[in-house]
Design goal:
alpha/beta; Rossmann fold; 6 helices; binds S-adenosylmethionine
């Protein structure tokens, strides 16, 4: 079977996140103050019991998991996952944490009631493919909830993001000019709502229905 994954870019993404894993939580300290409310809002929209978190990272969403849900968290980077495991242990949470590529999810169709990703589709090499995979593993009637930063709609700012993107992606991992709302449409998902949550629409809460 030919999978058509950009292996080189996927391995480079994994290496970048492995490299920044020890610093990730520290680097995000200030931004996290702003993200807290958004994370709460994301998880208030999630219906269980079976929930997939794609790109679980160091487990920053764990404090917001609603009671009674069974979360499976996947990530490309084993070093980010190591930190997620430690966080789950500290919190006494039972979460299945697996190393997996969002572009090729190793779950049967309709496995989950909902799927969540926060600040992930800026980094997945083929975001449309990753979104299709998420839709495949969520049952009909289930929801996908995303929190993402996207390319600015303001023409000059958008252009500046395009110019800076190669450097930021190389140093840090994420692409700053992804058009994730469009990518959700391209993946064939039905948008339930798109909310501008911060920075003039750069941060968006995106909800899609399967
Ligand atoms: C910016 S971090 C966000 C982590 C976490 N979701 C949060 O809100 O803090 C992006 C995460 O996506 C993961 N990631 C990137 N590409 C991926 C892929 N193809 N499959 C699974 N995880 C991926 C990275 O390893 C990293 O942990």
């Amino acid at each position: 079977m030919v999978l058509n994954i950009n292996v080189k870019e996927t391995m480079a993404t994994r290496a970048r996140y492995n490299r920044i894993a020890p610093l990730y939580d520290f680097m995000e300290t200030l931004a996290e103050r702003r993200y807290r409310n958004w994370r709460q809002r994301v998880w208030s929209l999630v219906e269980g019991p079976k929930v997939l978190e794609v790109g679980v990272g160091t487990g920053k969403n764990m404090p917001y998991y609603p009671p009674g849900v069974q979360v499976t968290g996947v990530d490309l980077s084993e070093k980010m996952l190591l930190r997620a495991r430690r966080r789950a242990e500290r919190m006494g949470l039972s979460v299945a944490l697996l190393q997996m590529d969002a572009q090729v999810l190793d779950f049967p169709d309709d496995t989950f009631d909902s799927a969540v990703a926060t600040f992930v589709f800026c980094s997945v090499p083929d975001p449309v493919r990753g979104l299709r995979e998420m839709a495949r593993v969520v049952r009909p009637g289930g929801r996908i909830v995303l929190l993402e930063h996207v390319r600015a709609e303001h023409p000059l700012l958008g252009r500046l993001m395009d110019l800076l993107d190669p450097l930021v992606a190389r140093l840090m991992g994420p692409h700053i000019n992804r058009e994730t709302v469009e990518n959700v449409r391209r993946a064939g998902l039905t948008l339930e709502r798109v909310e501008d949550v911060g920075m003039g629409g750069i941060f968006k809460l995106i909800v899609a229905k399967i």
